[in-house]
Amino acid sequence: MKTAGWIFIVIGALAFLGAASKGHSVFGPLFWIGIGGVLIYLKREKEETNEKRTAVEPTAPKQPEKPQLEEEKAKTKNVEQCTPVTFEQKEAALCLIAFFAGYNDDLTTDGAAYMVSYQSAIWFGIGNYKETLTAALPKYQDADKLIDTVLTIKDTKSREFILLTCYDLTKMSGKAEAYEFLYNIANDMGYNKEKFQKLIDQYSDRPSIN
After folding, report:
1. Which positions ≥6 away from 94 have C-beta within 8 Å?
2. How confident is the model at residue 87 (pLDDT cuts 50, 70, 90)?
3. CA nearest 30: which of 96, 94, 79?
4. What's the whole-model pTM score?
5. How far is residue 26's CA from residue 14's CA, in Å, rounded to a whole number?
6. How many Cβ atoms from other residues are within 10 Å of residue 171's Cβ?
């Protein structure tokens, strides 16, 4: 998985240079770079998990669940009622969010980008985030298919959640190209720049998009 991630990043980088030099759209190459970053992150996370398991004593007593984790599980049980979205649409939403997370340098399990992505799975009522994302990524190797599937989501709260989550991840990375792609996606969802900024202002104290 880690090797595949680096391959995607290299291919994406080369394609980006070619597309940019010829004045073509660079969304496709950047999509592959983002997917490569996610694959590397998933591999790194798996390695960290294995290391932690090796370090734990076999006779160590099971630690009680933290109240915060119990609250998250409670939210997961109830979230399905307020998000009328198909499982396929949820997969696409997670992949899109993971794509924007891939712009961030810190993709460790303790990093902010991971926590934001993980919370999105809870919001959509998906408990096995890593397994779902790993299985969904191969289905959406075509960037257009991914975007088209996300655009089929008609639930307003779900759309706004996706846009705001991607904005949080974009703000963390500070990458200009990420802002541009997010704005284009928001526009396709019916949120022009002014409407998108009103949405951001409504839910948080996020700074204005320029």
Report:
1. 117, 120, 121, 124, 126, 129, 132, 133, 136
2. very high
3. 96
4. 0.60
5. 11
6. 16
List Cβ neighbours of 164 (8 Å cut-off, separation of 6 or more). 199, 200, 203, 204
CB 79 within 8 A of CB 106: no
Q: How far is CA 8 from CA 2, 4, 26, 40, 175, in A?
A: 10, 6, 15, 10, 19
The confidence score (pLDDT) of residue 34 equals: 66
Give the separation between CA 3 and CA 169, rounded to whole angstroms.
25
Are 101 and 107 a contacting pair, CB within 8 Å? yes
Backbone phi, psi, residue 155, to 5°: -65, 120
Distance CA 101, CA 21 (A): 26
pLDDT value at 80 more than 50 = no
Mean pLDDT in the chain? 74
What is the predicted pLDDT for the residue at 181? Answer: 92
Residues 6+ apart with CB under 8 A from 207: 171
Question: Given pLDDT bands bounded at 50, 70 and 90, which one contains residue 90?
Answer: very high
Residue 46 has which token pair?
A: 């798996």
